User: Fold alcohol dehydrogenase (NADP(+)) from Botrimarina colliarenosi.
Amino acid sequence: MPIHAYAASGPDAPFEPFEYEPGPLGYGEVEVAVEYCGICHSDLSMKKNDWGMTQYPFVGGHEVAGRVAELGEGVEGLEVGQRVGVGWNSASCLRCDQCLSGYQNRCPDAEATIVGRHGGFADRVRAQAAWVIAIPDEVELVDCGPLFCGGLTVFNPFVENDIRPTDRVAVVGIGGLGHMAIGFAKAWGCEVTAFSTSPDKEAEAREMGAHHFRNSRDASQLAAAAGSFDMILVAVNVALDWDAYIAALRPGGKLHLVGAAEKVSATVFPLIMRQKSIGASPTGGIVTARKMVEFCARHAIKPTIEEFPMSEINAAFEHLESGKARYRIVLAAG
Ligand SMILES: [Zn+2]
Ligand SMILES: [Zn+2]
Assistant:
C-alpha cells in the first residue's frame, strides 16, 4: 500500500499530495499511522534546504503522534493500535558507545526522520522500534506531537545539567520551544524567569508557570539579574549579549543553547573565575523521551497548539513563517 504524503518538489515549491511505495516493513521497524504531526522550525529549514542536506521531493514532519499500524519482524514491547510518538530521530545503530550509554541522539549513524527519507506529513511513517515512544493514557494525542521534537529538546537540558528543584532557571524566548521549557521548569520545582522581547507575553508567561518576567530588550533588567541563575536556557536563534547573560548566571551556572544562533562570542575570564559554562544539545535520547512523556502525564504539561488539517499544510507553513504561531502548529491527518 502506498503512503500518502505531502511533498515539496523544491525549496520554494508548495507542498502537494505525493504517494510513495515504502516497500516491505524491515526487521525491527514499526509503521505508525499518523494522527497528528507537529510542524517544527526544522521542517521549514529542511524544506528550504538551509542546511544543504535536503532531498526533493521533500516530505517533512518529525513530531508524529499516532498509533502502531504494523510491527516488523522481531519487534517486541509494542502492540498494534498502541498510541505512540516519533520525533527527530527515527533510528540509530544501538551498538555504539553513544547508543549504549543512553545517548542514542548522539549516535554518529543516527537517522533523522526527515533527512534522506520521508517523514510524518503523511498517513503513515516508519521508525526503528526503539525510537517509537509509547504515549501514556493521560496525554492527548493532539497535544503530544510537539513534545517529541520541541519538547524533548528543552526537556533534555534539565536532565543533562542535573537541574534541581531548588535551582533558578531562566528561559530566553517564549516561542515554540520556550513555552514548553517554562512548563517543564515550573513542574521541575524551579524558580522560573522568562525573558522575552515582547512585553505583551508577560501574562501568558506567568500563566505557563514563570514566576518572573523580564524584557530582554531592556539591558537594565538583565543587569539586575546578575548572579541569579543556575541555568539559562536559550530557546531563540539570534545573537544575544552573551556576556550579559553569562553575568546573570550563578557561579557554576550553565548557559545552555537549544536555538541555533550562528555564533557565540563570550569573554572567557568570567567563565573561568566563576566556573560558568556554555553548552548545547540536540533533542534527547530514547529514555529521556520516555521520561519526558511520563513527566508530562504526571504534571499535565502540554504545548499550546494551533491545529490545521494536514490538507492545509501550506497555510500552516505560511502561519509558521509569519511568526504568529502560538506556539506550536499541529497538523491533523485526514
Ligand atoms: Zn524539530
Ligand atoms: Zn549508535
Summary: Residues 40, 42, 62, 88, 149 surround zinc ion (ligand 1) (CB under 6 Å).
